[in-house]
Amino acid sequence: MDDRAQEKGSPPRSTPMMEQYLEIKAANPDSLLFYRMGDFYELFFDDALVASEALGIALTKRGKHLGADIAMCGVPVRTADDYLQRLIAAGHRVAVCDQTEDPAEAKKRGAKSVVRREVVRLVTPGTLTEDSLLDSRSSNFLAALARDKGAPAPFGLAWIEISTGDFRVTGSDQAGLAAELARIAPSELILSEPVFADPELQELWRDLPGEVTPLPAPIFDSSTGPSRLSDAFEVVSIDSFGQFARAEMAAAAAAIAYVGKTQIKARPSLAPPKREIAGGTMQIDAATRANLELTVTLAGERQGSFLAAIDRTSTGAGSRLLAERIGSPATDPAIIETRLDAIAFLVERQGLRRALRDKLTAAPDMARALARLSLDRGGPRDLAVIGDGLAAAVDLAASLAAEGDIRPAELAEAEAAMVAVPGEIGARLAATLADDLPLLKRDGGFVRSGADDGLDQARALSSESRKVIAGLQTKYAEETGLRGLKIKHNNVLGYFIEVSAGAGDKLLSEPFAELFIHRQTMAGSLRFATTELAELASKIAGAADRALSIELDIFDSLRRLILASASALRATASALADIDVAAGLAELAEAENYCRPTVDRSTDFTVTEGRHPVVEQALRREGTSFVANDCILSQSAGAPGRIWLVTGPNMAGKSTFLRQNALIAILAQAGCFVPANAAKIGIVDRLFSRVGAADDLARGRSTFMVEMVETAAILNQAGEHSLVILDEIGRGTATFDGLSIAWATVEHLHEVNRSRALFATHFHELTALSQRLPQLHNATVEVKEWKGEIAFLHRIATGAADRSYGVQVARLAGLPKPVIARAREVLEQLEASDRADAATRLIDDLPLFNASAAGRQIEPVGEDQLRETLSELNLDEMTPREALEALYRLRALLDR
Question: pLDDT tens-digit profile of 311-336?
């Protein structure tokens, strides 16, 4: 009932439309409801307030509800994607409610009947498919996390790229979970409410950049997982997918269930879940990824990142694959060698490489177009993407086939995948689709002339109705001999035949009386109809609708044809990306003079004349050359040592040297050539980087606390096959506190972790440790000083810096001259003190900590001994260094 029809004094009630809205909204309380009304999506009540502020659109009113004004705002349906993008970026979820009934049908039920509406899709950060909502160069993962407390690897992770159909699964222990989440970088993570509420895991959720969505625990029930997966992939058994742990199965099934919930009735075309073996990729935690600026800079920009510097791909799919390889470097030398073989092949064949790259520019994003078509969200241009992609694949395969049997495995496999799609698909798409295509299928006009006779006729009637009517008029005039016969139209009779009163008698007589049916007598004229004209008029009236209907049928036919070969099409799209990455990296190798690394399972790390890829390109743009340096982290005979202690002044290049070697390790294990003259990399299973300074005020952490937390993570997790990059540990606190922490950290890396490591420091006292730690090598960045001026040579040489040149750097930074002069005076006094002898005294007087690491046999410790040791500690009078040593002693006792 309309509000205006309420009786005076009765309580206000909702209109039927508003009742429908409230019912649908009640079923989707956690989402903004896009409620379709004609050509607009409208939002009401609190949703309107939120959307109006987030989108900067006008807020209006629409009647009253329970006596209060109804807030309202709306966005046009045709531009809804732009507004969805902004709402999702602002952290909102959107339920899209469309009309599922023709308004004419609704009227048949009564004048005040409301058109049926249903939520057809839930738009969340991890389930986007539209190009306008996605970055073509970045993946957009929905991840699911499940837990099985009793398992050795208690966590299961599944992640789906709904816009490409990629689906993967892996397991993890708690120590590696943060690194796995950082590697996947999901836009949205779903997990059970109990796991979300676990106090031990709260910090993980806070660190994730994407949205975290807790769901009821039954969704993560592993016992129903197999049936949910078999239903989703329409198979009798999932045994062919491989074996999954309980937590992995629960995560995979939950991901499938969530996709079903958000896509409502649509079913995306997904690849079967592929299980990744634990340890199959280099573990890189979130802090290290940020410090190395792998995919984005510290400011969150892609430009200036490591990935941007090395990306020479031609397609969005290739760029996404390269980002995946850089973010998940392999730990299997066989996989790495396969990738390197493909790059080396294309480096040697410049002509082939250029031909492939030229043809790749015509290869659109097939995987994402296929995903939209599978969800019935695609348009004519998505059909064209499939067709153009297949045409490009055929051309690329032909270019590779011309090389004969010498192609490396990766390129040969890609060639085979690119010709596996039935040729009928490409042929039909090319023969059917017009050259100029609309965005939406409902706009019509995407089928070329000549592709369908029925469509051509409907179009002719619709667009050339005057010509058709004129032809029929000529025909009747010739048959009757009445040259004055005309076919006319009005809104009452529609199309009719008109002749003069005198000529009318002829049409009323035989033999024309049966053909021409008298309809109306006017002053001076008679009007007739024919069955043929009535049929033609009916055809003309519905020609446009019929033409669109035929086109939509053709669209559905092509869509079904494509989806029938979805698996082969995904393989083709993947092959195109593989070739793009190989060709792009070959182009990079030649342009930037990169070399092929040797990668094996040793613990060697030897880089000759290594360079930082980002800094080198930046310097070249400024007309400056990069100074290359060697780095040998090995404990083999004749090698300097597996830990390098790097000293030297600020701005001399210590941090650059540290980062470049970490990036070279990543490049090598991603299967890329590296910026060096030669490189041999023993597989790095975990990469740790503690570089730079940043606080975390939201959690009450100072810069020094953040530094200590990250350092603690390294010392607790690094092993013999790890690579550790540490820069200025201990500089955020008092001098001797910091020196003590740095000292103990170096010892721990050497004796306990036994990792390959680069440790940059301004604590020159640490260089004395090389006297007692056989695998510690002192290296310094060379500086030339002349009459108080310094020049940074950026060369790494054996030895130790005797000073930091901090005052000189401060002068270069522009500190006032009186401040510089006073600083020199203070420095001279300090250097004259006995602080320089501190390291010597420590070496002579302080035994190496944690003797258990040297291999001594120590009897197991009991609880009484621990209590006795703790009771002997005088906590109120201990210095920080003494406290740290006491902690190490306690840990040594516990480790027995």
Answer: 999 999 999 999 999 999 999 999 99
